[in-house]
């Protein structure tokens, strides 16, 4: 197989054929990506025993992705997470966007970046192989102002990492918050309760009943969300303080000293540690670093027994999403790091998912 192979599938979406790219890295990793939503269908990684494990949830049949509403493996945008009341102030007026979760906007709306067909082109350089995905979101799509040109790079590196790059530019001020929504399970199947998790955060965002931030940053010290030391996910989920809920929270990775600036001001290639996920039996360790100010940890609480790969049924806590992003509802919170992208000041964001064996 060539390092990056493109295959046109016999599946149409909005009149366009789906294309699958298969990427083989020099480190022994293999990824399959769709041009629909930039969906990562599979990601095979060599474990400590030399076995290739598919460490992301998904479907065997690409047709299943046409109706998926769980964002399995997809690019999420224009705005990841939620915008309260599906509206926000911008330059003296109120902008209203699609309300697709009750009264709120979630993950880009009814036809977010996960539901569109992207351009897809392979690349190879001296240290990585991958694909470049491109999409132009027209002015007014899902209510967002400005024509937004977005470029997403997926690269499998020679040192065993999956690097995700987001670049976007707009001709008008508009909020942009992009993330990659893969569901990780380092065992390849079953629950992630036996995985361990560490999150490099001293603070988190308290949420209301609709999962909209209350507006302040709270210390993790003394709470159920203190993950500064490695902990079993099962132990975290079983804490009485979660009261039968789940892990579905945004953790702050750095001070928000850029709150008054534009989105471009704090989005560079400079990355900080975000989280470490590990599984003892496979020996796999996933270390996440990012240029984003937060990581949202989501333990798949809303998966409802859907049929997945190889006859598996996916339910709550069968995976963990590690969504590096800006804060939820930032367009309504001037004290949060800004997500506004302006003409001449493009967005640039980088996240690295590095795999190793213990």
Structure description:
It is a single chain. This protein has 358 residues and is mostly beta strands. It has one domain (4-357): Distorted Sandwich (Beta-galactosidase, Chain A, domain 5), CATH 2.70.98.10. It is built from one helix and 30 strands. Strands 11-12-13-14-30-24-23-18-21 form a nine-stranded antiparallel sheet.
Q: What structural category do the secondary elements indicate?
A: mainly beta
Strand residue content: 35-45%
Number of strands: 30
Through-space gap between termini: 29 Å
Task: Give the biggest sheet.
Answer: 9 strands, antiparallel
Topology-level CATH name: Beta-galactosidase, Chain A, domain 5
Query: What CATH first level would be assigned?
Result: Mainly Beta
Which whole number gives the mean pLDDT?
A: 94
Count of discrete alpha- or pi-helical segments spanning 4 or more residues = 1
Biggest sheet, strands in spatial order?
Answer: 11-12-13-14-30-24-23-18-21
Q: Quick one: overall form?
A: globular
* The number of domains: 1
CATH level-two architecture = Distorted Sandwich
Multimer state: single chain
Radius of gyration: 19 Å
State the low-pLDDT regions, or none. 256-266
Please estimate the helix content. Answer: under 10%
Keywords:
mainly beta; 30 strands; Beta-galactosidase, Chain A, domain 5; 358 residues; six-stranded antiparallel β-sheet; globular; nine-stranded antiparallel β-sheet
Compact description:
The protein has 358 residues and is mainly beta.
